[in-house]
Amino acid sequence: MSASWKQLFFQILLLLVSCRHINTKTPGPTPPPLIPIDQLPTDVRSVVLKGESHTEKVELLNPVNLALECTWTGNQDKLPNITGLWRKNGEEVQNSSQTVLLENDQYNLKRVFSIVNEENLGSYTCEFGSKAKIDFVLAAPQIGEVRDKPIVSYVGDSVVITCKMEDTKPQPSTWNWYRANGTDKEQISTAQEPLRYEIKSEERNTKLVVHSLVEADGGLYYCGAVYAISTSMSHVKLKVINFHEPLKPFIAIVIEVIVLVAIILLYEKSQSKKNSAAGENGTTDQTNTLTQGESNGPEESSSMRQRKV
Amino acid sequence: MSPAPADELCRKPLDGGWGWMVVVGAHISIGFAYSTPKALSIFYKEIQENLGASSSEIAWISSIMLAAMYAGGPVSSMLVTRFGSRPIVIAGGLMCGVSMVTASFGNSMVYLYLCIGVIGGCGLSLNLNASLTIISKYFLVKRPLANGLAMAGSPVFLCLLAPVNQYLLQIYGWRGSLLILGGLMLNCCVAGALMRPVIAPCKTSNCEPQKKLKEQPNDSHTKLKEGCMKNAKSFLDLTFFKDRGFVIYLIGSIMFIFGAYAPIVFLSAYAIRQGVEEFSAAYLLTIMGFVDMFVRPATGLIASSKWVRPRIQFFFSFAMVFTGTVHLLCPLFESYTFLVTYAVFFGVGFGMVFALIFECLMDLMGNERFPSAVGLVTIIECFPMLLGPPTAGLLVDIFGDYKYLFFMCGSVILSGGLFLFVMNIYNYHMLEKEKPGMDREKKQINVESQAHLTASEVEMKRNPEAEMERSEPEAKEANGVQREPQPENAETPD
């Protein structure tokens, strides 16, 4: 009996050890599952060109095998064959140069590109000789509403920076915030400084709240809309100023008001002193009209004549 | 209508000289009063983002400010009657400045409602009422021109404040901008300093003329003043509703105010709906404001002319009919050029009506009753002003088309203008009928008031207050009676 107990004990021990082994992997960001290229979905974009050039914007969310088709109606020469070429970001794609025949009064170029990550995005151009070309601009959805003016806030205050993705564009899977650090961007993590930073993200918009601002907090802040294929960035500039800055013009204006009021009241006092010095039949407007009015008093018709003037 | 002859016993309005400086002061004061609620909307987006408020929450700031400005009318007219214009405008300027400065430290919407809305609005209402009153004290012959120049402050300051606010917002953010705006509003105190009080507060024919006052010992002088002032104690004087001319004017102006502001609020949105780009749509309002700036003094000049002055009520109703017609014609054509033309004519109509709106009330009420009348009118105008734009917005929501908004506003204003025109004809007709009776009564009361003057001189030292209270209603009635037949006298050729 003790032998079977020992066996059981050893089995359990083995089990535990092997389990522990499995659990010692440190949890970290899991890399995106690598989908083999032939298992990517396929998409087609085709453009028919009638003139000399055209630009087509292609919005991509996920990795895809993208087939780009170019059709050119040709020019007046109508050469029977022409050299076709593909370029990526201006540089010729290797082994893409080919001879294109005139079929049905058209020239056709077609190629399939695997767009997997951010490096694959960019501008793809199909060229017909050096006579016509079509640009396909491949990009993740860009954040349209970019705030061009800086947000101004004060030392000790808190500021809210927002980023929004339009309703017409697909929503990102998540949002990230970065701070400019020299030429790099450093991701802002609320876990590290929970008292200072707060990120509130909904589907289409995100807010970064920075509390207890200091002047060093000023600078560029980037919000990134994360899609499977890449992250689109938009930036907002934050300016942190001291409260003394608006106080200076304010005090200047207050001083101006006090000076003007003093001038007006002193002028009035000097006028009235002049008049009281000159005696009762003074030259002030009021007393003048007063005496005038009194002499006109019994004549009511004078008031009516005013109206008819 | 000219003020009652009883006023003439005391003083004749200046119609020039220092009066023009007073017009400058009124221009500044009225300018801030009308343009601040609109100019503040430039800060709203920033405040919304910072404090996390919704669009409707933030729009309440302007609404509360406008409501406080209009509703504070009766209180402000009572204060103006008691203390004169200068201290009230200075106090109003200080209140506005303080309200903006305290608002710059705000962290919640309720705080902003209180500071900007309530305190700021009350400060502005003090400014508005006092400025209008002092114009009526300084001008008679050129009063329409003075009114036109003073009311032109509204578009001028709007055109000035809008870019200034934008600039301040970029440099200092919304807090710093509110602080500096508060400083700018302190300039209303400068405007107040310009409003030199007219000496001889001769309220009624039974108040002692200035000359005799000087001979009296000091204590009875002050007692006399108190006696005069106490007559203005009731600030909500409902006897105005017995005055036919007042009621007609009130109905007409309610109808105008109801339809006046909605087209301004929705013009940009309508233009964008027609396919105009955003910048050009905003430009339409600028055009309107620019035209408004010049039309107001021009209207004042025209109204001062001898042909128009006696018929100023009809000119006012013409201006309203014109504005209503312009609104009705707006949805008919849909090109941008037409919208620009519409904006120009809208500016003309709007400017004409606003240049005349207070002048006509002064004309009807005379100097004596104008402060209380304008307080009553503004508090009643509060309701159509607050109801107009939301009703128009509701129409847009229900029908999904902006043209019904313009039809509604145009028809309300047009019918208001026609109503005024017809009812004024009726009013003058009735007054002409009543005139022979009035003339007889007038002569009687004049004799009586002269007797009272001499009698009150004697009794002055003994019991000034009782004297004032007793003779006041009679004098008031005399003033009212004497005032009404004036338009008839003015219209009959010399």
From TrEMBL, chain A:
It is found in: Membrane. It is a single-pass type I membrane protein. One of its GO terms (molecular function) is cell adhesion molecule binding. Keywords: Disulfide bond, Glycoprotein, Immunoglobulin domain, Membrane, Signal, Transmembrane, Transmembrane helix. The keyword Signal applies. SMART domains: IG. Residues 281-309 have a biased composition (Polar residues). The keyword Membrane applies. It holds the Pfam family Ig_3. GO terms for biological process: cell-cell adhesion. Residues 32-126, 141-234 form the Ig-like domain. This is Ig-like domain-containing protein.
Automatic annotation (TrEMBL), chain B:
Signal peptide: none annotated. The chain crosses the membrane at residues 58-80, 87-105, 111-132, 144-164, 176-195, 246-270, 282-302, 314-333, 339-361, 373-392, 404-426. GO terms for molecular function: monocarboxylic acid transmembrane transporter activity; symporter activity. It is a multi-pass membrane protein. GO terms for cellular component: basolateral plasma membrane. Residues 458-477 have a biased composition (Basic and acidic residues). Its main location: membrane. Pfam families: MFS_1 (PF07690). PANTHER family: MAJOR FACILITATOR SUPERFAMILY (MFS) PROFILE DOMAIN-CONTAINING PROTEIN, MONOCARBOXYLATE TRANSPORTER. This is Major facilitator superfamily (MFS) profile domain-containing protein. It comes from Eleginops maclovinus (Patagonian blennie).
